[in-house]
Fold this sequence. Notes:
Helices cover 47% and strands 22% of the residues. It has 227 residues and is α+β, with helices and mostly antiparallel strands. The protein has a 4-stranded antiparallel β-sheet. Keywords: DNA-binding, Transcription, Transcription regulation.
Amino acid sequence: MFVKEITIMNFENYFPLWNDLNTAQKKLISDNLITQNVKKGTIIHNGNLDCTGLLLVKSGQLRTYILSNEGREITLYRLFDMDMCLLSASCIMRSIQFEVTIEAEKDTDLWIIPAEIYKGIMKESAPVANYTNELMATRFSDVMWLIEQIMWKSLDKRVASFLLEETSIEGTNELKITHETIANHLGSHREVITRMLRYFQGEGLVKLSRGKIAILDSKRLETLQRS
């Protein structure tokens, strides 16, 4: 009981709509809230096979991506501490038919509000419904931004942007990442990414080693991504 109370108290601090809920709604969430500790590489949500529910990240990092018929991946967006994901509960919104996979990029602690519980509260609460629409609009803005990048930005600029984003996330210029992983994020082929990174290495922007990429010239990468 004590552990459950601590869990709910922690959840209250992370869930922005808690104070907008009435007593019955708070109890409904408290009684049905799922806590998960997932290891790096765990698939949390798998396309239209799941209607997992609303995800709220306590700590860690998740990756949301789509998979083509040929098996190629492309990252839509990532989730960090205190981020929420609704596409894992897209079944609660009839007009949304969006198949995504959500994977833990790092060991992650998260909460899940089951889809039916959240759907019921959303029908009753205007603040929750409004917040849900805003959150979904934000995620689709992320997707539209990605489409623009794919359509209008050359691959060298996209790779430069990705490497800079990774150094910001990891807090280091020594990235432990494979060419295959970068290809999956960007919806490309490993061989194409390898050729691009070797070009970057020849230009003195990066240094490549097995499973690692060292960023040597961040300023030139920033200039490249903006050009």
